[in-house]
Amino acid sequence: MPKRHRIIALLLLTWAPLVILAAAAGVAAGDAVGLPLLLDYTTNVRFLVAMPVLVGAEGIVWGKVVDLAQYLVRSGVVAEPGMPALHQLVVRFHARRTSWILPGIAAIGVVFGVIFLRKEYAGDLSTWQFVPGSSGQVRSAAGWWNLLVSVPVFQFLILFWALRYLLWCWFLYRLSRLDLVLIPSHPDRSGGLRPIGQVHQYWSIVVFALSSLISASVGLAIVHGRPLKDFRLELITFLGLSLVVLFAPFLAFSGKLLDARTHGLLAYGELAATYTRRFDAKWTGRNTPGDDLLGTADIQSLADLANSYAVVHGLRLVPFEMVNVIVIAVAVALPFVPLVFVVVSPIEVARQVIQILL
Asked: Vertex 71, ends 66 and 73: CA angle to 5°?
């Protein structure tokens, strides 16, 4: 089923029934309850933003993973004796990704959550999930649908993606254990592993979905009286943990990248010492170099050697660069930008920006 059809089907299963049932009970809008459905930012963002993003991310993330597998096979990053092990790893990864085990575990987790970890709306505010006037004691039809259908579907997507990420981390770890041919002078400054970081940054799409949901929850609390500063520690912690969780798998490559950098510096240092000694003897051992210095290839070779040594010296110990960090950080932080405008007027922000620029 195409992604857009799946998204529409899920919306018809999760969000649309809530609107219909809440409207029938008179709690979709208006003041019958303290929090009508259409003003429940958390619920609406969960199904109208986060869920479609999670569904749409599947084709993007796994498409990039396939491209990475093809790169690993063609690039020679894995030594020839290790190619059978690489092919076996790719086959096992694909088999586990497409098997019933991951969705089965996610489904079990959802059932457990529905039975044992049911959570009600926190606070004294009456919501659309309960019959008006029942003081939060009698769950409405919309509330039951939300509890038994809508939220479990979303929880399934979250758990499914979490398990997929663990599988991806397993793939990266097993890849790092193969016989890798890391070239210290590779222009990507990652020994030839930079495409791994480029593919990994697409997991920021999943993080964006989670961040959107958290932002909506915080925004709802702010609208109903809590100051933004109360959530400062939680937001900073979420950003930090997101970066740690997303980039920790790359540490598996650090040992081999460090070895490649160390051996590369020794090899290119020896080469540079030999070349510069001969260069010095040839060109600075004379009293006057003469016109034959002009246009000589020796000068260009010396510059090329210096550039190569600089590349080896700048070899990263993890296969990602700052732009990958920025992409993921933006994906985490972007959904929280509207919270700033809840507290500060957009006009005031624009005025401050203009004053700074002028």
From this structure: 100
Distance, in Å, from the CA atom of 326 to the CA atom of 277, rounded to the nearest integer, reads: 43
Exposure class string for 153-172: b at 16+ Cβ within 10 A, else e: ebbbbbbbbbbbbeebbebb
Residues 6+ apart with CB under 8 A from 170: 93
Q: Which residues contact 350 (CB under 8 A, 6 or more apart)?
A: none
pTM of the entire structure? 0.84
pLDDT digits (tens, 9 = 90+) for 16-66: 999 999 999 888 888 888 889 998 989 999 999 999 999 999 888 888 888
Contact (Cβ atoms closer than 8 angstroms) between residue 232 and residue 340: no
Q: Are 224 and 127 in contact (CB under 8 A)?
A: no
Greatest CA span in the chain, whole angstroms? 102
Helix (H) or strand (E) holding 104: helix 101-116
Rounded to whole angstroms, the Cα distance separating 123 from 62 reads: 40
* Of the listed ranges 66-75, 238-247, 284-293, the one predicted with least confidence: 284-293
What whole-number distance in Å separates Cα of residue 180 and Cα of residue 256?
Answer: 8
Provide CB contacts within 8 A for 187, sequence distance 6+.
311
Nearest residue to 189 (alpha-carbon basis) of 71, 77, 317: 317
Q: Can you tell me the distance from the alpha carbon of 203 to that of 172, in angstroms, rounded to the nearest whole number?
A: 14
